[in-house]
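Box 3.1 A note on notation
Throughout this textbook, protein chains are presented in two layers. The first layer is the amino acid sequence; the second is a token string describing backbone geometry. Keep the layers aligned when reading.
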Amino acid sequence: MRFALVLSEAGSGLKRNLSMVISVVLVTFISLTFVGTAILMQMQIGQMKTYWYDRAQVAVYMCTATDNTATCQGQDATAEQIAAVKAKLESPALAPFIEKFYFENHQQAYNDFKQQFKGNPVADYVTPELLNQTFWIKLKNQSQSDVIAQSLSGVAGVQGVTDQRSYLDQIFRILNAASLTAIAIAVVMLVAAALLIATTIRLSAFSRRRELGIMRLVGASNGFIQTPFVLEGVLAALIGSLLAVGAVFAIVQFFVLGYLAKNTLATSFVGLDNAWIVAPILIVVGVALAALASNVAIRRYLRV
């Protein structure tokens, strides 16, 4: 009976402040959608790191006739120099670190370049001789790329040694910055949601100040008085949280899986299993935030 009375009071409060409740639902929905999106972005970045770092290779670029560095001196790498590099890669010193490697000559590099920049005017100005012949090396442990760099840097005919992970690091720094920006926006909006919830509860308490006075005169405890107001905030935030969960599932289903995964085949993407991980986080954050804001707001009001 007492619980039914508390629910009745909470429902009455929601009806009296319907416009404010709708505002709380919308702000909570938008802010938690940002939170969910930011979490998904972090998961996506983690998946992409695993996917691409596992596939990253070390490139040993051989000299071209246009390179005037000390190891090249304006001469294309000779067959002997290429053979010497291959022998080093197959030597007992380096072979234990290498899973596999292959050599790409000028023509093969040119064919790949033409395919990659198909339709781009820059492809018309590039000739095979301008592109490096390259040894592409897949290491057993990509973190050991320094071993290859130290062994082959400065060798005659080698223009340079590059770990592809250095390019990936730059991309992931940009993605992390975007993710942190989304988190910052979400935090600001969560603060706004908490303030709006607190304001809604205080207005609800003010509109029922006579009822509260009577309840206190008949001996109702502060806990009994506060509970309906806390439930108001929690119920409004719960609706917003569930809408945010629905938005996260929609983003994954229709945008990530329905569009990105079909049009970008070169990487892996987050799926519905990741959305199921995010869902309870959003609900807990929304409910906890509303409970805290409502509790603080009504306590301050009762002290007045």
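The mean pLDDT is 78. Residues 117 and 226 are 66 Å apart (CA to CA).
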